[in-house]
Amino acid sequence: MTLRAFIELCGWTAALLILGSYALLSFGKIQSRSPLYQWMNIVGALGFVINCSWNGAWPSVALNVVWMGIAFYALRRNTRQKSR
Question: Which pTM value belongs to this model?
Fold first, then answer.
């Protein structure tokens, strides 16, 4: 696989993960506090960071870094609340 193909795969996978997580949440198949939802957002945002960085889309990079940060924070918070 070429580097360009890997970058494209990261972008398409990211889009599918973000849209998939939103669809699953919207249709009541998963909860916003579920680790699956948060991990889909984390991995999706990472894919967009890789793809957007390569393509020089810096506003999208910034958005997805923040998106990942929110998901990591929520995952950590939800894990802590569950263990109490």
Answer: 0.93
